[in-house]
Design brief:
The complex is a heterodimer of chains A (442) and B (341). Chain A has 442 residues and is an alpha+beta fold. Helices cover 32% and strands 21% of the residues of chain A. Chain A has three domains: 14-211, Heat Shock Protein 90 (2-Layer Sandwich); 219-390, Ribosomal Protein S5, domain 2 (2-Layer Sandwich), CATH 3.30.230; 392-442. Chain A has helices at 14-20, 27-45, 76-83, 105-113, 134-139, 172-178, 181-194, 196-200, 323-352, 360-367, 409-419, 424-439; strands spanning 55-60, 65-69, 114-122, 126-133, 149-154, 162-170, 204-207, 210-211, 218-221, 227-233, 239-246, 255-260, 263-269, 295-302, 369-372, 381-382. The longest helix of chain A is centred in the C-terminal third of the chain and has 30 residues, at 323-352. Chain B has helices at residues 13-27, 49-58, 73-79, 92-95, 118-130, 159-171, 190-210, 250-256, 280-289, 304-307, 320-329; strands at residues 39-42, 62-67, 85-89, 106-111, 135-142, 221-232, 236-246, 271-273. In chain B, helix 1 (13-27) runs parallel beside helix 2 and helix 5 runs parallel beside helix 7. Classes of the chains: A alpha+beta (442), B alpha/beta (341).
Chain lengths: 442, 341
């Protein structure tokens, strides 16, 4: 038997990358991936996270898509050996604290968008241009996977660091979505959320001329309320920081916000994933609903080696099977329990008392002020969320009975006349006492 | 109505035996930390029987009683027997998550009035997710099989169906062992099912807490069951629990020698506390023979030299099974007498 016959062809085809893998990726996440690459560049350029002056400009129109940044550029050797590979070569160093770690982000995103793309980069020690016609590349067959530089300058710098990506021949479904202004509104809102931390640190992101606003993470603070903070660093270097408390009463904003390397992955999360399992559920707290709308939890998972973070490859969800995430989730649940208790007390208070004056907990909430978590000073946190406790209700001894009965109106009116009483309850009491005095207690 | 109003726990004999057994378990925690570092957390009700015993015998000085009936706070506070006991008001589901966990190792005896339910499981999870290594967790629940009362209707399929509905409601289908059937819900089997559910819950929380760290990591948590006790003063009760340790404490664990306790169990085979009805004279006589002159596994007298002096054939006076029961619990056997104080 010849050895060759024992071989089974398991090599990939280009089609797998061009048309199959892109199906797992939404357009929204494809753009998110490209933004992540720019943000990673910013992080390399400014490890202190002071991003002012750095800018990412995105254009998404029916005839082209482009993303231009001044966040550092791609070095030619990185482009040659790594940036365009499908998958990360083993042993390849990571860029500390980055969000693009799987080595599939950029290519997959570009294939998702269109058939013709140009990348123009200027980095500290090199600059290059690459132009790829996807159809041509595919026709070259599965033996030749290389792209080619159309321009290349190494060892010199023009002092400007940028990356420009320009995609045309957009795929038809992409074109359609870029014409849909609702898609664009949603994109802006979501990127705002996703990068709120980075925008807060001064990074400018523009989509179709709209500058993205910073959305702040905030919590109520006063002497009565101390938000909970939990921090832990694992043996492998991944760290978690959980901050939780109460914020504005807004149904759609309540829940957990989970960040990986400062990029929002999920949130506001209101499902079983972040512990809202329902009381009958397996391990968490009640289902998320109106009475918990003030709950705010912020989870920051950070690691220099981003591959150890428990997120999925499209960075829009957590890897729920990972023991690490299960552990983080357990911590989140433990952190939120006292907050749920307080919100339950508030609900009870609302149900029991009709006037605002008689709702001391609600009053305390109103007196507290909203602070962003960057303003929140360290000594205002505590290990366990602390809150005012409702005063116990001392029950009145149960000695009285209530009697309700109906009587014909004309009879009642006669009694009214004779007794000169106006209120019906007084008449009832009077007539009962009359009987009692006559028959029981002389 | 809360049970403290209708039952005085102090006169439940098997429960008294159990409390004294727990004292012996707690003593062995000294292999992990000095006992005075431990904080005891329980449900003292108005009687605080467990608190009194543990304070007097072990000199525990940090004690917290969780009491859900905050409307009668004054009464509970009035009945606190020692100044080292603090009553925290609120449901255990609410109070436990507010503990400062790093402060000290703890002894939890969560002695619930009712059957095993999701609230009990929630407390177990809170403790397993947070407690320091060296913490002891003991849970007691009522394991009496469910029986419809006069106001309830028996389902068409009979008692089996009725019991299945009850446990599904109380624990939740997803927590019941696969293949649970009505025959697992009877007087002789329900406690075993409950032990399994508690064990699964503890281990699953511990697994989450470990977050996938390797088996040889010194900081990996482990749960070691120490007791699994059943008794029936009226309703059938189950007490199960163990110690939460980290790998680095393996030597402390072996030197604690929990397995040397006669009522130790690290599996699903319970130790059954059975309290025979005996007169003081009988008790005194049997005690004079213990521990060396009665075969505790059969109840038979071993040394005739000593016994022949007074009684020739003891089992014609005291049934053999009562001698056997007594000899397994005599060191913890309560004596009840009328008293005025």
């Amino acid at each position: 038997m010849q050895n060759n016959n024992l071989k089974i062809n398991a090599s990939p085809t280009k089609d797998l990358f061009i048309t199959m893998l892109v199906r797992d990726l939404t357009l929204r996440d494809a753009i998110g991936d490209l933004v992540d690459n720019s943000v990673d560049g910013a992080k390399r350029l400014r490890p202190d996270e002071k991003y002012s002056g750095l800018k990412i400009n995105i254009e998404a129109y029916s005839d082209h898509f482009s993303i231009n940044d001044n966040c550092g550029g791609i070095e030619s050797n990185v482009a040659r050996e790594y940036a365009f590979r499908f998958g990360r070569p083993k042993g390849q160093g990571y860029s500390p604290g980055s969000v693009g770690q799987f080595g599939i982000g950029m290519k997959r995103s570009l294939f998702k968008l269109g058939k013709l793309f140009k990348i123009d980069s200027s980095a500290p020690t090199s600059s290059f241009k690459v132009e790829v016609d996807v159809n041509e590349w595919q026709e070259k067959g599965s033996s030749d996977w290389a792209f080619e530089f159309t321009e290349l300058n190494e060892g010199e710098s023009n002092g400007e660091f940028w990356t420009k990506i320009y995609v045309t021949n957009l795929n038809s479904d992409i074109k359609e979505q870029f014409e849909d202004s609702n898609f664009l509104k949603k994109l802006i809102r979501e990127i705002e959320l996703e990068h709120l931390y980075n925008i807060d640190k001064g990074l400018t992101i523009i989509i179709n001329g709209v500058k993205l606003k910073s959305r702040s993470l905030s919590l109520l603070e006063s002497d009565d309320f101390r938000s909970a903070r939990f921090e832990h660093t694992y043996d492998d270097g991944m760290s978690i920081k959980l901050i939780a408390g109460i914020g504005e009463a807004k149904l759609e904003d309540g829940g957990w916000y989970i960040f990986c390397n400062n990029r929002l992955i999920v949130g506001p999360e209101q499902t079983e994933l972040s512990g809202w399992t329902g009381k009958r559920g397996t391990d968490g707290v009640a289902n998320y609903h109106g009475q918990f709308q003030m709950f705010r939890g912020y989870a920051f998972l950070n690691a220099d080696d981003s591959s150890i973070l428990p997120w999925n490859t499209t960075k829009n969800g957590m890897d729920r099977d990972s023991p690490r995430f299960k552990n983080v989730r357990q911590r989140m649940i433990e952190t939120m329990k006292p907050i749920i208790t307080f919100l339950n007390h508030m609900k009870k208070e609302r149900e029991g008392k009709s006037t605002e004056d008689s709702r001391p907990l609600e009053k305390k909430v109103k007196e507290a002020s909203l602070k962003t978590i960057s303003e929140y000073s360290d000594n205002r946190y505590s290990t366990v969320f602390s809150h005012p406790v409702p005063q116990p209700v001392i029950k009145k001894p149960d000695t009285d009975n209530k009697i309700i009965y109906l009587m014909a109106k004309d009879k009642v009116n006669e009694v009214k006349k004779l007794t000169k009483l106006k209120k019906l309850s007084d008449i009832g009491e009077y007539t009962f006492n009359y009987y009692y005095d006559m028959e029981i207690e002389d | 109505m809360p049970s403290y109003k209708d039952i005085n726990y102090s006169i439940r004999p098997a429960k008294c035996v159990e409390r004294k057994m727990l004292v012996e378990v707690f003593q062995r925690l000294a292999s992990f930390f000095d006992l005075d570092r431990y904080e005891y957390i329980g449900f003292g009700s108005t009687y605080f029987s467990d608190f009194s015993l543990f304070h007097k015998t072990l000199d525990l000085k940090k004690m917290v009683s969780i009491e859900k009936d905050r409307h009668n706070a004054d009464r509970f506070n009035f009945n606190v027997p020692y100044s080292c006991i603090e009553v925290k008001f609120g449901h255990s589901n609410e109070v436990l998550p507010t503990l400062i966990w790093d402060a000290c190792p703890r002894i939890f005896w969560l002695d619930y009035d009712g059957a095993l339910n999701t609230e009990v499981l929630a407390d177990i999870r809170t403790i397993c997710a947070n407690a320091l290594e060296g913490t002891l967790l003991i849970v007691s629940v009522n394991a009496q099989p469910f029986q419809p009362d006069s106001s309830e209707e028996m389902p068409a399929d009979g008692l089996g169906e009725y019991r299945m509905n009850k446990v599904n409601n109380n624990i939740g289908e997803e927590k019941l062992p696969i293949g649970t059937e009505p025959k697992n819900l009877s007087l002789s089997t329900l406690s075993k099912l409950y032990r399994q559910v508690v064990d699964d819950e503890i281990k699953s929380s511990i697994r989450e807490r470990n977050g996938g760290i390797p088996d040889d990591n010194p900081n990996k948590f482990k749960y070691n069951q120490v007791i699994n006790v059943e008794y029936q003063d009226g309703a059938k009760m189950l007490t199960v629990g163990g110690i939460i340790t980290k790998n680095y404490q393996s030597e402390n664990l072996s030197s604690a020698k929990f397995d040397a306790l006669p009522f130790h169990s690290d599996n699903d085979a319970p130790f059954k506390i059975q309290v025979p009805k005996l007169t003081f004279r009988e008790i005194n006589y049997l005690e004079s023979l213990l521990p060396s002159n009665i075969d505790t596994s059969t109840g038979n007298i071993i040394d005739n030299d000593k016994t022949s002096l007074s009684v020739e054939n003891l089992s014609t006076i005291i049934p053999l099974k009562d001698i056997k029961k007594f000899s397994s619990v005599y060191r913890h056997f309560p004596m009840f007498a009328e008293s005025n104080h």
